[in-house]
Specification:
Elements (H helix, E strand, L loop, with lengths): L8 E4 L17 H8 L3 E4 L1 H4 L9 E4 L3 H5 L4 E4 L6 H18 L3 E4 L10 E3 L7 E3 L3 H8 L3 E4 L4
Parallel strand pairs: 1-2, 1-5, 5-8
Antiparallel strand pairs: 3-4, 6-7
Helix pairs in contact: 4-5
């Protein structure tokens, strides 16, 4: 594999200015957009890849964090109570497939997200409270040796 490909970074698509958040807007970070525009990073959204739509209902993890979801001990639930666990896991695995294909070793993900959050995510009550833990994609990437951080560390 071309050694240049291993230096590409994965970023949450919303951080690159793509309108893919649950509200249908973005969380633009100028540095991240510049990296994507220059070809140094690729932008993907696991929730879009899971065919959850834009806009979509909010999702939070109930009963644990992303590791617990991957282990079948917790669920991803929409604000109306719909279980979207299988969809969220499928979207995370689609991102992992791209990560492996391009030899990506690092990712900058959207903080607090049920899929992309690193270290702190919403607590599953839709009350705005946070809990310790990673989102589903962040947990899956870590399990596969990818170094993950949030936009707050850029």
């Amino acid at each position: 594999m071309d050694s240049r490909l291993s230096k590409i970074c994965l970023v949450s698509a919303c951080l690159a200015g793509i309108n893919c958040t649950f509200r249908g807007v973005n969380n633009l970070n100028g540095k991240i957009k510049k990296a994507v525009d220059s070809g140094r990073s690729i932008a993907l959204c696991p929730e879009v890849l899971a065919s959850l739509g834009v806009p979509r209902e909010r999702i939070e993890l109930s009963g644990g964090d992303g590791n617990d979801v991957l282990d079948g001990k917790a669920k991803a639930i929409s604000s109306s109570g719909t279980d979207v666990t299988k969809d969220v896991i499928a979207g995370a695995y689609k991102v992992l497939e791209a990560v492996k294909r391009f030899g990506i070793r690092s990712a900058i993900l959207k903080s607090k997200s049920p899929t992309c959050g690193v270290g702190r995510i919403y607590d599953g009550t839709f009350s705005g409270r946070l809990k310790d833990g990673d989102g589903v994609l962040a947990a899956l990437l870590k399990r596969n040796g990818v170094i993950v951080s949030t936009e707050k560390e850029v």
